[in-house]
Design goal:
about 600 residues, alpha/beta, TIM Barrel, OB fold (Dihydrolipoamide Acetyltransferase, E2P), 3 domains, 8-stranded parallel sheet, 4-stranded antiparallel sheet, 20 helices, 22 strands, about 40% helix, about 20% strand, globular
């Protein structure tokens, strides 16, 4: 009987696919300990979105998290992380010295194996990262990324078994060193037949000595079938997860896959009672977190627009945050065209985010009226590598005109090594200018997380964790909540009344407050009144989003093309222009506030 190995993805992909990667380390360590005691010895623990999310939302350091996990599991467990080729653990690509620093830092903080993939399957993006991983003394798992094409698009060469075999051949021809091979289907949309033929061809090309690992999600309800197809074709390792972060947008459950293999020539070689006990511990650990219902569902829409499990709930949660979840279905429909016209790069981070951001822009502004300048637009112009097939030429022309950039065929890392605003020296300078310690860890944090990473190191650490309602502090009886601006930041203020006395609670501290009427109230209302009397022009939000930056203040002179506010939605920044020459009369927007389409941002006279 052949023993099939598995990697438990609960503590990385499970967090990303079900909880937007926003989980406190202290909350899951008991489950990690229980998993190891149940006999699980291969665990995905970080990388991917679980790097940035700790700094952006969890008030934690990712390197500290890795150290604590290694301490819990002991020296022998294979701790694996996820890296996006030249993008390493961010959405933006990096220079070669930062790529090398990534590998050295992850080795230093207890990682055993790094799965290294490129969403475009451009081998040029795998070579520098793969060599750095190998040179750092880590196990390099080189990866071919997969997805299924929407019905009606299957005549394309992209994402066929032959395409995947050609991608593997390019890896072998490149000479990049690797210890194992993974096939990664983040959206779970590949058919079992495609999986079978792909793994079969790979096994013939590699012989019997190299381990083949297969990864898929259950978003389209096919994880068990595809895992079985991979096993029959010769895969040695499959990716699974534990309840409550299994099935749906995550991987198939360990016990479900164990049940599928019972009575066959294959086994997972586990003690199911011990796994069940570990799952109970994990379920208890996760009780306090809000689990979006879509994370546990099979979605037939996914076969038309391959949204990865790791991005689906992150995007729906961001849409909840920005009060535009009603646009989700339209965005998914628009995503199909974005995939096809964009050259069929695999829908996995960062390309999956590029697709959805562009679909969001097409939904909100009209088809191709605004091409995302940082993601999708640069991708179709070649700045993230070569797409599996050429993007639509008209789209390339529009992107070049809107972005003011020519198309390129130059390797990404070569472009980045010439960029003065990338690399160790540049990020060292940012730390020095901010008066922060210059360490290898801090250099990498700023390089991977940008301005938010710098703010984290300066002590600006917002909490963006989404807890279940039962875990939230109860509001006082009769209390109301409001968003206010204090020291330039949006905060939630809870106001309760006792007769004519009012109490405001901010960040757990209570204050007695009064209400002023008369002249003060009239003065506060004046800007709103003036905005509607025809003497001023209100610059309104064209879409739902979060106010990322306010670039003007009352009294500033502006030109029509000047940016006054930057909105952020779906990780995409939108510059809001003044629209007329004049003077800023008032600023209605609050830093960090969520606004709806049509909400006033500033007034200009």
């Amino acid at each position: 009987m052949k023993k099939i190995k598995f990697m438990d993805c609960s503590f990385r992909d499970g967090f990303q696919s079900c909880l937007g990667a926003r989980v406190k380390t202290e909350d899951f360590l008991p489950a990690l300990d229980a998993a190891v005691k149940a006999g699980i010895n291969h665990i995905e623990i970080g990388g991917g979105a679980r790097f940035q999310s700790l700094y952006f939302y969890c008030q934690e350091d990712a390197f500290d998290m890795m150290d604590k996990c290694r301490e819990v599991v002991g020296p022998d467990v294979n701790l694996q992380t996820l890296s996006r080729g030249v993008n390493v653990v961010g959405l933006s690509s990096q220079s070669s010295d930062i790529i090398d620093l990534h590998a050295r830092m992850f080795k230093k903080h207890g990682i055993t194996t790094i799965r290294n993939f490129d969403a475009l399957n451009d081998v040029r993006n795998l070579i520098p990262s793969g060599k750095s991983i190998h040179n750092a003394g880590l196990k390099h798992q080189v990866t071919v990324t997969m997805m299924g094409l929407a019905p009606g698009l299957t005549e394309s060469y992209a994402h066929t078994p032959q395409f995947y075999a050609d991608s593997l051949k390019a890896i072998l021809d490149s000479g990049v060193p690797f210890d194992s091979l993974a096939f990664k289907d983040a959206s779970g949309t590949s058919t079992p037949q495609t999986v079978y033929e792909t793994v079969k061809m790979a096994r013939a090309m590699l012989g019997s000595d190299i381990e083949i690992q297969f990864h898929t999600h259950d978003t389209a309800g096919m994880a068990v079938a595809c895992n079985w197809a991979a096993i029959e074709a010769g895969a040695d390792v499959i990716d699974l997860a534990m309840s409550p972060l299994s099935g749906g947008t995550c991987e198939a459950d360990i016990l479900i896959m164990y049940q599928r293999l019972r009575g066959t020539e294959y086994t997972l070689d586990i003690d199911p009672e011990k796994i069940l006990a570990a799952e109970k511990v994990f379920e208890k650990c996760m009780e306090k977190y809000f689990m979006p219902p879509e994370s546990m569902q099979v979605s037939p829409k996914i076969i038309f627009s391959p949204m990865p499990g790791g991005a689906l709930t992150a995007n729906t949660q961001m849409m909840r945050d920005n009060n535009c979840l009603d646009k989700y279905d339209a965005c998914i429909e628009a995503m199909r065209e974005a995939v096809a016209k964009g050259g069929f790069g695999t829908s996995v981070t960062p390309v999956s985010q590029f697709y959805f951001q562009q679909a969001f822009a097409n939904t909100m502004f009209g088809a191709w009226k605004k091409i995302d300048p940082n993601g999708y637009g640069k991708m179709v112009l070649g700045y993230f590598g070569k797409t599996p097939v050429a993007p639509d030429p008209e789209l390339v022309k529009m992107a070049s005109e809107q972005l003011g950039l020519p198309p390129t065929t130059e390797a990404v890392v070569d472009l980045n090594d010439k960029n003065p605003k990338l690399g160790i020296a540049y990020n060292t300078k940012l730390l020095e200018e901010a008066g922060l310690p210059v360490t290898d860890e801090n250099i990498f944090i700023v390089a991977a997380c940008g301005e938010k990473g710098l703010k984290y190191l300066q002590g600006d650490r917002p909490n963006g964790i989404r807890y279940a309602e039962a875990a939230k502090p109860a509001a006082a009886a009769g209390a109301s909540t409001y968003t206010a601006t204090i020291d330039g930041k949006a905060v939630v203020v809870e106001v309760s009344a006792n007769g004519a006395e009012y109490t405001a609670t901010v960040n757990g501290k209570s204050f007695k407050v009064g209400v002023k009427e008369g002249a003060d109230a009239a003065a506060a209302a004046a800007p709103a009144a003036a905005a509607g009397d025809g003497s001023e022009t209100v610059v309104a939000a064209p879409m739902p989003g979060t106010v990322n930056k306010i670039l003007v203040k009352a009294g500033d002179s502006v030109g029509a093309d000047d940016t006054v506010v930057i909105l952020e939605a779906m990780k995409m920044e939108t510059e809001i222009k003044a629209g007329k020459d004049g003077v800023v009369a008032s600023v209605s927007a609050a830093q960090g506030a969520v606004v709806a389409a049509g909400d006033a941002l500033v007034s200009i006279k």
